[in-house]
Amino acid sequence: MEEGPLSKSRFEALTYKYPRFYPQKVKDFTLDDNLPLAGLTIRNEYRSKAAKFGLGTLDVLPLELLQESLSHLDVSTLTKFRHINRRAADVVESIPEFKAIVMHAPNALLGILSVETGHLISCKALYEQLCTAECEHCGSFAGYLYVLTCSRVCFHCFTAKERYLPLRYCDARRKFGIDRKILKTLPSMRSIPGKYSREQLNRPKRLVLVDSGSAYRAGVALHGSPGAMRRYASHVYAQELQEHNIKAFHASANGTYLPRHLYPHDAVEGNPLRFMGIIRMPWLNRATREPEYGAYCIGCISCHDNCLLNQFDIQTLSHHANPVMSLRRIYQRLHRRLYTEASFSEHLRQYGDIRDRKHIGT
Ligand SMILES: [Zn+2]
Ligand SMILES: [Zn+2]
After folding, report:
1. Which ligand is nearest to the CA of 139?
2. Residue 134 vs residue 264, higher pLDDT
3. Mean pLDDT in residue range 165-183
4. CA 210, CA 213: separation in Å to the nearest integer?
5. Which ligand approaches the C-alpha of residue 359 most closely?
6. Which ligand is nearest to the CA of 137?
7. How far is the CA of 121 from the centre of ligand 1 (A)?
8. Residue 337 CA, ligand 1 centroid: distance in Å
9. Distance 199 CA to ligand 2 centre (A)
């Protein structure tokens, strides 16, 4: 295995910039792929003209202090403030954090404003996530933002973990035993109609979706403990299911069909709801001031394809830390993991160098 730091050219030779199996190159059919104005920068319509009016009493503050104060505002208020007059637009666009967001992650800002979570996220918090490289759940390099809690997440986590599945009010109510009054106090979003997930499932209506982590905590606080919450929720669910089954029985007698369950099936990676609050976002490296998008490992993609083609399901990789996990599951997790030059060196140390597009054991 090659020793020493990985060169840029070797990193590029051993990685793909995009998931190779996507004919559309980059599309994951997340929120940013459904924004009507995706890819546009936030325009300053006043740019060419000098400001005629000031900001009143705010103008007594030094510019740095004004910028610092405004950067703590939520992005919804900040963008409204920007439209007061030319001077306000000039000041907002001179805020270093706002400038960096508009330059490197305009779709994150557009997406947040479109799904109406702008009042939940400050300009400062969004900038911090832009400058954070790691997934908040698993710590690997992550190329996405979950807009309900302004968290950096990786593909594997947002397509698999419960906390990144935003829920419809009716499902959150059943699952956590909380009423609409409580749900309305929790972080929620209004989805954008469009196609979501790799299956490109069409969802033409706007849905109100609540953050499941917040709903879980609200349920535990209301019922006193996770166990009490689950008992209450399963009792209510059993009653509702009984009523539903009676309705389904009568409906089938009349020739119509009602599903025999109340919870919608979570098809994890194929669940369109998981993609509605997710935006692709680069990592802004504070040291170089350059955005990094990460790249996919050529070895993991080939090994993943091999597993699928040959139906491998070997129980262990001798050099892997988790002997319980099957080879197929390892590469299912790894083939969509993004790496920077630094994290790729560590990946090669853990899974072995790459020869002929395949990892060889350490
Ligand atoms: Zn993760
Ligand atoms: Zn790999």
Report:
1. 1
2. 134
3. 93
4. 9
5. 2
6. 1
7. 21
8. 9
9. 25
**How far, in Å, is the centroid of ligand 2 from the Cα of 362?**
12
Ligand nearest the Cα of residue 152 is: 1
Ligand nearest to the backbone CA of 351: 2
Tell me the pLDDT tens digit for each residue of 97-134. Answer: 999 999 999 999 999 999 999 999 999 999 999 999 99
Per-residue pLDDT at 270? 82
Between the two ends of the chain, the Cα-to-Cα distance in Å is 8
**Strand-pair category, 358-359 with 354-355:** antiparallel
Note the pLDDT of residue 261.
63
- Residue the block writes with tokens 């006193």: 224
